[in-house]
Amino acid sequence: MDTEKVMQLVVTQDEPDVAKLTIYGDITDGSFFVLLFDKEDPSTTGGLDIVKALSELSDDVKTVEVHINSYGGEVMQGVAIYNALRDCGREVVTVCDGFACSIASVIFMAGSRRIMRPASLLMLHNPWVSARGNAQDLRKQADTLDTIAELSKTAYMTGTSLDRETLDAVMDAETWVSPEQALEWGLATEVSGSKEADTPTQSARETVMAALLLTNVDIPVQTSKPAPVDPEPKLEPKEVQDQGTTETHFQRLARIFGDN
């Protein structure tokens, strides 16, 4: 199998002072894939990959342009990438080419300029993990997850207009964020390819809708400041699952991407 990394760092003759880096695929060092299948997955990107790539740049490179299309991955690797980009000593421009979900959305926040394509989405949520053990073990795991969540919140709140209450609600709801909403909250600084930078075009809406249908993604998108979350009533797991199916995928997409 060809194990050449999908992640690439390219400097062209046309723009010798700009290095273009692609992060497409899962954010992980790939060790789990090797453990399961005894071979590397070339689509993965880990912290060490980025550190090595940045260390090979010449002094002529003044800007690193990072293109992201990822569902996310390991928090440890993503945080390392975020910090490596923030500390690289160059201007960092991040571009969401499709999806920047979970820890990939944290990497997106490393840019001083953060550009979303008209047909792109961010997804913010709290970290999760499969856990087992006794009650004490699970309480400890929950506390650890709360601590890890603070890493993401620090990145999201740096240079944005999001207040802590809004951000908590957004992450608790596992929110998909459109380019328009990302601009309003300051998560993105601009939208490319549109004169009306803060308004996705109808064709962009259709493209995103089609992508979500193909991937069968549940998409609770927040288009305005979320209302305080009412913890009552408490539903049993089966009831929660049934509640999620009361609105069809098409109805949910039409509600989210319909004209305001």
From TrEMBL:
Q: Which UniProt keywords apply?
A: Cytoplasm, Hydrolase, Protease, Serine protease
Quick one: a GO cellular component term? Answer: endopeptidase Clp complex
Q: Region annotation Disordered: residue ranges? A: 222-248
Q: Where is the composition biased (Basic and acidic residues)?
A: 231-241
Database matches in Pfam families:
CLP_protease
- Which InterPro entries does the UniProt record give? ClpP, ClpP/crotonase-like_dom_sf, ClpP/TepA
What would be an example GO MF term here? Answer: ATPase binding
Q: What biological process terms from GO does the record include?
A: protein quality control for misfolded or incompletely synthesized proteins
- Give the UniProt family note: Belongs to the peptidase S14 family.
What's the protein name?
ATP-dependent Clp protease proteolytic subunit
